[in-house]
Amino acid sequence: MTPLSLKPVAIDTYKENVAYLHRDCPLYHSEGFQALNKIEIRDGSERPPVVAVLNIVDDASIVSPEELGLSEQTFLQFGMEAGSPVTIGHAAPPVSIPAVHAKIGGEPLQQSDYLQICEDIVNNRYSKIEIAAFLVACAESGMERDEILYLTEAMVETGDRLDWGEPLVVDKHCIGGIPGNRTTMLVVPIVAAHGMLMPKTSSRAITSPAGTADTMEVLARVNLEPHELKEIARHHRGFIAWGGTANLSPVDDILISVERPLALDSKGQMIASILSKKIAAGSTHLLIDIPVGPTAKVKSQSEAMKLRKLFEYVGDRTQLELEVVITDGSQPIGNGVGPVLEVQDVLKVLKNEPTAPEDLRHKALLLAGRILEFDPDVRGGEGYRLARDLLDSGRAWERMQAIIEAQGRNPDPPQPARHTRDVVADRSGVVKAIDNLLIARTARLAGAPLDKGAGLYLHRKVGERVKKGEPLFTIYAEYPADFQFANDFADSHPAYTIGDAQ
């Protein structure tokens, strides 16, 4: 077959291999290639071919008829220099596609099926369309508890694993959905100050106003390589870093890239996603936080208990010591929503300032206390008191400062955004409810988390009295357009319900 000249194309196709072929390329006609076909790309060596989804272009400035263009991810994976000769051919269907068809038909899959599916996904043999079919099939047909276990194990096996060389490595994870719930940045320094190892790899926000990595980045560098993480953990017993630099459960990242635009929220996928990441990160003991509330991800206690049992089942069979706590998710935690405003809350709690949000402090102590009780030297029921002592004494604050310095302190931390407006109560009374979803949406429209200083500051919580005209929350936005979007949405979608005082 006539070789083509390799050309990098500066397009980020995010977690999908894409190749570009000119419509006038002789191979396009002679070999019957069509747009969205999958092709195999070879360099003449014995190494396995790279599989990519084919796009056809008509612009010779992108690729000429003699060239094959590769998106940024594909070019890096292929590892050859621009101009290298390559050949292409039709790719065979992934071996695991029949298993996806079976799942679409409602059949449960076996351990070998999930392993083969994950191997095909991580090796870019699936298109986004095929991944979407797999995700929808799992969501609609449901996953038995053994299937969740199989998927978790397969996601771990098809990536790297960190080994900290210690028998007790702790972590926590909240299933999300509660604005301002920045407990991790308090729990890590408390637990690390006790001496337990808590290497925290966290995510960036996808649909929320801030992820832990977004918020920590206000204070310190979070894009750290695995060797840096190990050095920091050795000296300081903890860190708070972005998890994207390590190849931990890479299938999960690919699935999420398809799952989010589809707004899929499959419980089985969520459990496999969380636990595979924690196991791959080397955790031995894990605390799961499930907030429950009318506008949280989990709406009822019965739903939370079902989820808890699934977490415990998979954790038990993967040798992960796991505890689930069900917490109040009826309203946001803390006052700030958005990276800079959340950091202000965290620092107030760590420094024991009188204006620190009490709900954030209490929840962080509750979670840290449960984690401290993983230590065999800490008696059951003593964790909360120990966590409180570590915070009140200033040891947690000192440890956080040491972690920030080790990760690389931000020399020019961002400030709250410049455009502000108070959203006020339209009547006097008592705050009866705060809608988590509307608060999160307003903060994102204001520019969070991309604009670190954007978001909301909440002045009232459920149960508190408010007079007509007093502020309920303040909108912060850096750019006029975002400021207008957030204001319009807040005015047309009231997040606060105010009722009569009893």
Counting DSSP H or I runs of 4 or more residues, the number of helices is 18
CATH topology of the largest domain: Pyrimidine Nucleoside Phosphorylase, Chain A, domain 2
Overall structural domain count: 3
Q: What is the CATH-assigned architecture of the largest domain?
A: 3-Layer(aba) Sandwich
Low-confidence stretches: none
> Quick one: biggest sheet?
6 strands, mixed, barrel
Biggest sheet, strands in spatial order? 1-5-2-4-3-6
Span between N and C termini? 82 Å
The CATH class designation of the largest domain is Alpha Beta
In the CATH hierarchy, what is the superfamily of the largest domain? Nucleoside phosphorylase/phosphoribosyltransferase catalytic domain
Helix proportion range: 40-55%
Mean of pLDDT = 95
Shape: globular
Strand content: 15-25%
Task: Please provide a written account of the structure.
The protein is an alpha/beta fold and 502 residues long. It has three domains: 4-90, Barwin-like endoglucanases; 170-244 and 277-407, Nucleoside phosphorylase/phosphoribosyltransferase catalytic domain (Pyrimidine Nucleoside Phosphorylase, Chain A, domain 2), CATH 3.40.1030; 419-499, Alpha-Beta Complex (Aldehyde Oxidoreductase, domain 3), CATH 3.90.1170.30. The chain has helices spanning 26-30, 72-78, 97-104, 111-122, 128-141, 145-157, 184-194, 212-216, 226-236, 250-262, 267-280, 301-317, 339-350, 358-372, 383-392, 395-407, 436-445, 480-492; strands at residues 4-8, 18-22, 38-42, 50-57, 67-70, 85-90, 170-174, 198-202, 238-242, 285-292, 321-328, 336-337, 419-424, 429-434, 455-458, 465-466, 471-477, 496-499. The strands form five sheets. It has a six-stranded mixed barrel with strand order 1-5-2-4-3-6. It has a four-stranded antiparallel beta sheet with strand order 12-15-17-13. Strand 3 and strand 4 (50-57) form a beta hairpin. Helix 5 crosses helix 10 (250-262). The model has no long low-confidence stretch (mean pLDDT 95).
